[in-house]
Amino acid sequence: MALLGYQAESEDFTDPGQGIQGRFIAGPGPRIELLIQTDGSSVLEPWLAKGVKAYHYGYEVERLDAELERLKAAGGIVVTAPRPAVAFAGRRISFVMLRNLFLVELIEAGQAERTP
After folding, report:
1. DSSP 8-state code for residue 10
2. How much is the mean pLDDT over the chain?
3. CATH number for position 65
4. Does pTM surpass 0.70?
């Protein structure tokens, strides 16, 4: 990714609750989160089996619960209920599949610092 102007933005993290290890990289384009599964996890298997390389966009929202209700009212399906995420210092995240089959991650806004 260095060839494209990207570099590690922070230390790698592990989120046992999601079964992933990750790293954020930043550069001239959008911020990217690179993920791998932890031992014994299969959370990424459906995407990897299909050859999918990028499978969602993340959006920071001020009011996570209200935003979930808004997306559900528009036909979205909550596929991961709100839960704390290591990558965002325990701020809650939730995944929603939109009617057009696009997956979005909602990230609760906040100023907490990421913990290692």
Report:
1. S
2. 90
3. 3.10.180.10
4. yes
pLDDT-based confidence at residue 49 (cuts at 50, 70, 90) = very high
Phi, psi of 47 (to 5 degrees): -75, -45
- In angstroms, what is the C-alpha Rg of the chain? 15
DSSP secondary-structure letter at 40?
A: T
Tokens of 110: 């906040």
Distances (CA, A) of 84 to 3, 34, 50, 79, 100: 34, 19, 28, 15, 26
What residues have CB less than 8 Å from 52, skipping those under 6 apart? Answer: none
Q: What's the pLDDT score for residue 115?
A: 42
The domain boundary, picked from 55, 80, 98, lies at 55
